[in-house]
Helix-turn-helix transcriptional regulator (Streptomyces carpinensis), 290 residues
Amino acid sequence: MTSDPHRNDLGEFLKARRAELDPASVGLPEGGPRRVKGLRREEVAVLAAISTDYYVRLEQGRIQPSPSVLDSLVRVLRLDEDQRAYLYELAAKHDYRPPRRQPRPKVQPQLQRMLDDMAHTPAFVIGPRTEIVAWNAMGAALITDFAKIPEKQRYYIRLLITDPAMRELYTDWEGVTRLAIAQIRMHNANSPGDAKLAALVGELSIQDAQFRQWWAAHNVAVRDTGSKHLRHPVVGDLHLDWNAVTWAADPDLQIIVWTAEPGTPTHDNLRLLASWTADTSNTVTSKTTG
């Protein structure tokens, strides 16, 4: 039986998770020197009450796991909620078909108008591959001038890896980047044959050894909400909360909105950034029309 992309991803995910587990932590003896980190295949099989041959074929992408086996693997590999959801997504019982996703999501005019009306709030729209498809003036002022980046290169993860300014902007650049990679995996679980994603991953894997290592770790996370500390070149330190809101007209798109608690220095700095953005825009306009 040949493997399919869903099951290949599932096998790699299982390998990555068992490599993270210490035998002693699951009640197993070390059993002498180990050639690889973590649990052996036969140990996972014993703990999950399945045959070693079954588990080997599962990692090789040759079989479809049953719900009971998935439940056992969640328990044995100590998966968290995001990892559990990802495992079940990869193991979904349907035949693989090439994804019908558009080459690049398109933004409807009303979405852009909504972004533009958020004069004091940074926001941008991101696709599952982290393609940046829309933004407002504050979003560009906070992160970078997206308009200057060719559309085919306008990926958030690509900026994080290739733009030195992003490493300066995020005080925890590594954490931000690793989270973005985990979110890409999670939000593309249903598109294992996505040629554009494969090309992006291939490009960044060649350019950056850290990306290559972090992508191979098969970590996953939902893009939902969080906090980040930025060191902005114009207004200084910003401690911002971010929320990802799914656009109902196209569930592939999420609006990332950055906010700060009123009365905090960050809230004041956002107002300062909005003023600076408006002044810059007016200067450019006057030079263009003068």
Q: What stands out?
A: The domain at 5-90 is CATH 1.10.260.40 (434 Repressor (Amino-terminal Domain)). The chain is about 50% helix and 10% strand.
